[in-house]
Specification:
Keywords: Signal
CATH superfamily: Cupredoxins -  blue copper proteins
InterPro entries: Cupredoxin, EfeO_Cupredoxin
Protein name: EfeO-type cupredoxin-like domain-containing protein
Order of helices and strands: HEEEEEHEEEEE
Strand order of the largest sheet: 2-1-4-8-6
Pfam families: Cupredoxin_1
Mean pLDDT: 88
CATH architecture: Sandwich
Organism: Sphingomonas panacis
Strand content: 35-45%
Shape: globular
Structural class: mainly beta
């Protein structure tokens, strides 16, 4: 009886609960420059695994903020500290890697991101994650 219950529990576990193979995840690079994010538009497939590398090549500190996106994405537990409070914060010259599964939504959607530092308010420091 115990073996039957254990077998049913294993079968009931969704495949999505298994850890993704991060070595096969699609890489994405975003660079922070003195004039904004490059690229500004990031296309993602729902539920697909990604390895996001963000590099600050500016001479100032910047952040990439999008609280709803980082809350909806399944960020790898070891990388959650890098997206604390829904933002990635980098000083000049810093680089960070965040692994995640793209959010799954009914119709896809967009998540506008920006840098919220006071110095970036006057610049066009914005971008968008587009979920398909």
């Amino acid at each position: 009886m115990k073996a039957l219950i254990l077998s049913l529990a294993v079968l009931a576990t969704p495949a999505a609960a298994q850890a993704p193979n991060w070595a096969k995840a699609q890489p994405i690079s975003i660079t922070m420059t003195d004039h904004g994010f490059v690229p500004r538009r990031i296309a993602l497939r729902q539920g697909a695994p990604y390895v996001l590398r963000v590099t600050n090549r500016s001479d100032k500190g910047h952040n990439l903020t999008q609280k709803a996106f980082f809350a909806a994405a399944r960020v790898r537990p070891e990388d959650r500290g890098e997206t604390r409070d829904g933002q990635i914060v980098l000083a000049s010259g810093e680089r960070v890697t965040v692994r995640f599964l793209a959010p799954v939504t009914r119709r896809g959607g967009t998540y506008q991101f920006s840098s919220t530092t006071l110095a970036d308010a006057s610049d066009d420091y914005k971008g968008v994650f587009v979920i398909r």
